[in-house]
C-alpha cells in the first residue's frame, strides 16, 4: 500500500517522446501523455522544448520584476488630491494610493523573481497577475498599451507548464497550449496595431514624425523618408500578425520582429520596458533546437550536474533555510531606500512557509530552494535601488506633488527623507529649503538653500530663492548681494538678472518663491 500511495503522489508530467508516431522509450520517470483522437492538435498538441520554457521564464519574469521596481518612482501620482479615473466604470474608488501602489509593486517584483526562478509558479503567477490587473484596470494614470497587453498575457501565462517535468532534458518536448494562445494573442495585437494606423495622419508620416527621435530619425530622413517609414511600420505589423503564431513562418517573424522592436528602442519611442518585454516574448519564436542546443552545451551540462549533486534535505535544513532566509531578507531590505521595504520584507517572510506547507515539501530539496529564492528576490530590490535613481525620484516626486497641492507638511517629510538618503542631490536641499521658508522655519530653510548653493555652484536658483525670501522680509541689502551672487553663478540666467534689476529699482520686485519646478513626475 505504501508503494502504491507513493507512486500515486508523483507529479504528472506534460512531457512526451519527441516523435508521437515512432515507438520510443521515454526517460525514466517521465509519464507520456497521449492525446485523445478528437483533441484539436493546433491547441492541445502544441509543443515547445523544456529549454525554451526555462529561458522564457527567466527572461520574461525577470524583466517584469525590473519593470515593477522601476515603476515605484510613479507611486506619488496615485491618490494625489483624491482624484482617480479607472479603466472600467465603477472601479474609480478601488484605485491604489501612493503607499498601496508602492507596496503592490514591491510584492509584484518579489513574486516575479520567484516565478523566474521556477518557485511555485502555480501559486505565485495567479497572485501577481491579479495585482498587476488591479493596478492597471483601477487607474488610468499609467494607461499604456503594454500594461493592458501584459495583464492579458499574465493571465495566459498562469496556464503555461513552467515547472520542470520529471526527468526532462533541455530538448524534451512539453505540451503547452497556453504558449500557442500567447503567440496568437501577439498576432491579434499586431493586427489591431496595424488597423489603428490606417488614417491620414499616420499614412502621410505626420504622427510618426512627431514621435521618432534620435539617430534613427537621421537615418530615416536620409534614406526612405518618414512617409515610407510610417507605411513600412503598418506592413511590418501586418506581416507579424500572420507569421508570429505559425512555426514554419518563424524564419520571417523572428528577424522582422526583433528588428522592429529594436528600432523602437533606438528611435526614442520606448515607454518603460515595453520594447524589452516584446523582445523577451520573441524567446518563444526562436526555434526550439537552438535553445535545446544551448542547454546541452558542456558548460551548462556541468552546472546541471553540479546542482543535481547538491543535497538540501530534511526538516532541519529546510527550517534553517527558511528562517535564515527570512532574517537575511529583512537585513537586506533595511539597506533598501524604498519607504516600505522592511515592512513588506517582514510580511513576505511568511511566503516560503506557505509555499512549503501548500506543496507538502518534506525531506525534499525544494524546501531549502524556496528559502534561497526568497533572499534572491530581496537582493533584486537592493540591486535596483542602488543601481538606479528610483528611490530618490520617489521622494522627489512625492515632495513635488504634495507641495503643489499645498500639503507642506507632507512635502517636508518627503524632502527630508530625500536629503537623508541622497545628501549629494542638490534639488533635495533646494526644495526642502523653499518648503521650510514657506512654513516659517527661517534658519534651517536658509541653511538648506546654502547647502544647495554649495552643491550646484553654477546654478542660480538657490541664490535667487534666498534673495527673494530676504527681499520679502525687507532685508534689501542682503537680498541684492544674493542676487548678484546668482548672476555670478549663472550669468545667462534671466531669473537672476531680472531679480537683480528689480531689487536695484529698475523693476517691481519679483514674488518670493517664483522658481520653476524640477520635481514633477514625467511619464
Please, could you describe this protein's structure?
With 523 residues, the protein is mainly α. The protein folds into 3 domains: 47-298; 312-387; 392-503, Alpha Horseshoe (Serine Threonine Protein Phosphatase 5, Tetratricopeptide repeat), CATH 1.25.40.10. Helices cover 63% and strands 1% of the residues. The chain is built from 26 helices and 2 strands. A two-stranded antiparallel sheet has the order 1-2. Helix 6 (145-157) packs antiparallel against helix 7 (177-195). It is globular, with a radius of gyration of 29 Å. Residues 1-34 and 509-513 have low confidence and may be disordered.
The protein's oligomeric status is single chain
Strand order of the biggest β-sheet: 1-2
Q: Shape from CA axes? A: globular
Radius of gyration: 29 Å
**First-residue to last-residue Cα separation:** 63 Å
**How many alpha or pi helices?**
26
Derived from helix and strand composition plus strand pairing, the structural class reads mainly alpha
Number of strands: 2
Mean pLDDT: 84
Q: Give the DSSP E fraction (strand runs of 2 or more residues).
A: under 5%
User: What percent of residues adopt helix (DSSP H or I)?
Assistant: 55-70%
Amino acid at each position: 500500500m505504501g508503494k502504491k500511495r507513493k507512486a500515486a503522489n508523483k507529479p504528472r508530467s506534460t512531457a512526451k517522446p519527441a516523435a508521437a508516431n515512432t515507438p520510443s522509450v521515454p526517460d525514466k520517470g517521465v509519464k507520456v501523455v497521449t492525446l485523445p483522437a478528437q483533441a484539436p492538435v493546433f491547441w492541445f498538441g502544441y509543443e515547445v522544448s523544456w529549454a525554451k520554457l526555462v529561458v522564457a521564464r527567466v527572461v520574461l519574469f525577470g524583466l517584469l520584476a525590473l519593470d515593477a521596481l522601476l515603476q515605484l518612482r510613479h507611486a506619488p501620482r496615485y491618490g494625489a488630491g483624491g482624484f482617480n479615473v479607472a479603466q472600467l466604470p465603477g472601479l474609480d474608488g478601488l484605485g491604489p494610493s501612493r503607499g498601496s501602489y508602492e507596496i503592490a509593486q514591491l510584492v509584484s517584483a518579489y513574486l516575479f523573481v520567484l516565478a523566474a526562478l521556477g518557485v511555485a509558479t502555480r501559486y505565485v503567477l495567479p497572485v501577481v497577475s491579479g495585482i498587476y490587473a488591479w493596478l492597471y484596470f483601477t487607474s488610468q494614470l499609467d494607461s499604456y498599451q503594454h500594461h493592458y497587453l501584459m495583464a492579458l498575457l499574465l493571465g495566459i501565462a498562469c496556464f503555461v507548464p513552467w515547472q520542470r517535468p520529471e526527468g526532462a532534458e533541455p530538448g524534451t518536448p512539453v505540451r503547452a497550449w497556453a504558449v500557442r494562445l500567447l503567440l496568437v494573442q501577439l498576432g491579434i495585437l499586431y493586427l489591431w496595431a496595424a488597423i489603428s494606423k490606417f488614417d491620414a495622419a499616420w499614412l502621410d508620416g505626420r504622427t510618426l514624425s512627431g514621435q521618432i527621435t534620435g539617430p534613427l530619425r537621421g537615418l530615416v530622413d536620409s534614406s526612405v523618408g518618414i512617409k515610407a517609414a510610417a507605411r513600412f511600420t503598418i506592413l511590418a505589423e501586418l506581416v507579424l500578425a500572420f507569421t508570429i503564431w505559425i512555426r514554419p513562418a518563424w524564419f520571417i517573424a523572428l528577424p522582422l520582429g526583433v528588428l522592429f522592436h529594436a528600432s523602437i528602442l533606438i528611435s526614442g519611442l520606448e515607454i518603460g520596458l515595453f520594447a524589452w518585454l516584446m523582445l523577451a516574448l520573441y524567446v518563444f519564436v526562436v526555434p526550439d533546437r537552438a535553445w535545446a542546443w544551448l542547454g546541452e552545451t558542456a558548460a551548462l551540462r556541468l552546472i546541471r550536474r553540479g546542482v543535481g549533486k547538491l543535497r538540501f534535505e530534511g526538516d532541519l535544513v529546510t527550517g534553517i533555510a527558511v528562517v535564515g532566509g527570512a532574517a537575511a531578507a529583512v537585513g537586506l531590505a533595511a539597506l533598501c531606500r524604498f519607504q516600505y521595504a522592511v515592512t513588506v520584507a517582514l510580511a513576505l517572510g511568511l511566503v516560503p512557509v506557505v509555499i512549503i506547507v501548500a506543496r507538502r515539501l518534506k525531506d525534499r530539496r525544494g524546501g531549502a530552494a524556496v528559502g534561497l529564492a526568497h533572499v534572491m528576490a530581496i537582493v533584486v530590490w537592493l540591486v535596483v535601488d542602488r543601481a538606479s535613481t528610483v528611490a530618490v525620484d520617489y521622494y522627489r516626486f512625492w515632495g513635488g506633488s504634495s507641495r503643489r497641492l499645498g500639503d507642506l507638511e507632507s512635502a517636508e517629510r518627503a524632502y527630508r527623507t530625500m536629503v537623508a538618503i541622497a545628501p549629494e542631490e542638490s534639488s533635495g536641499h533646494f526644495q526642502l529649503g523653499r518648503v521650510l521658508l514657506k512654513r516659517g522655519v527661517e534658519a534651517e530653510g536658509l541653511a538648506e538653500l546654502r547647502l544647495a548653493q554649495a552643491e550646484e555652484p553654477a546654478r542660480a536658483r538657490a541664490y535667487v530663492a534666498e534673495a527673494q525670501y530676504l527681499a520679502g522680509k525687507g532685508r534689501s541689502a542682503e537680498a541684492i548681494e544674493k542676487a548678484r551672487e546668482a548672476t555670478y553663478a549663472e550669468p545667462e540666467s534671466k531669473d537672476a538678472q531680472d531679480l537683480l534689476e528689480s531689487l536695484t529699482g529698475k523693476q517691481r520686485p519679483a514674488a518670493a518663491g517664483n522658481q520653476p519646478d524640477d520635481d514633477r513626475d514625467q511619464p
